[in-house]
Design a protein that fits this description.
Length: 206
């Protein structure tokens, strides 16, 4: 997979899209597509203008890594919500279990985590272990950011569309958090045991 490093190079130089557009004569739409890695390619004259202005080589503008985001498996908490006194609804600490699989350099990275809704709707977290963070650090930053975005987008969609929760949230209240290995392992085990046998196969992966 190839990614454009324009966002990183701009941040290092304190340049925004408007300034880059003005100084290169390139359109904001073209530059935004490169910055967000949403374009389908780049013209040679565009690459030449950017490299000259930023004083970089073409190879500095791109990063390659053998990495793919394979899939996310999720299992909603069977006991996600329950009614309380005065018509209130109690939200479970963990609304879902996640298994994330990433392919990198002919190896598969599998991460187990939980969707923490304890502070919903103010803040929602997808929790993984510190060990998972260490394994991901072998992947270039720009690809890690895309992986994190995929996970948070998936979790956001689950909360707002799939799960029967009363308040919609936006991405600004969603984050990925890496916590102590033993703590996360025990929390996942407790969650699995609470799901009436549906996830028991994952106990062997702990």
């Amino acid at each position: 997979m190839i990614k454009c490093n324009l966002a990183v190079l701009m941040a290092e130089r304190g340049i925004n899209i408007s300034e880059l557009s003005e100084r290169t004569g390139l359109s904001r739409n073209t530059l935004s597509a490169l910055q967000n890695n949403s374009g389908k390619g780049i013209q040679f004259d565009t690459m030449d203008a950017i490299c000259k202005l930023l004083d970089v080589l073409p190879g500095d503008l791109f990063t390659y890594a053998d990495v793919e985001f394979n899939y996310i498996f999720t299992h909603p908490n069977k006991h996600q919500t329950k009614p309380e006194d005065w018509g209130r609804i109690a939200i479970a600490k963990y609304s879902g279990f996640y298994e994330v699989e990433i392919f990198h350099n002919e190896t598969i990275i599998t991460m187990l985590g939980l969707l923490n809704t304890e502070n919903y709707p103010r803040r929602t977290q997808v929790v993984f272990s510190i060990n998972d963070k260490s394994r991901l650090e072998k992947i270039p930053l720009i690809f890690r950011q895309e992986i994190f975005n995929n996970i948070t987008d998936f979790a956001l969609n689950e909360i707002n569309v799939t799960y029967d929760l009363p308040i919609k949230i936006d991405k600004s209240s969603m984050e990925i958090k890496f916590m102590d290995d033993e703590f996360v392992r025990n929390e996942i085990k407790a969650f699995i045991h609470s799901q009436d046998g549906d996830l028991d196969e994952y106990l062997e992966k702990m």
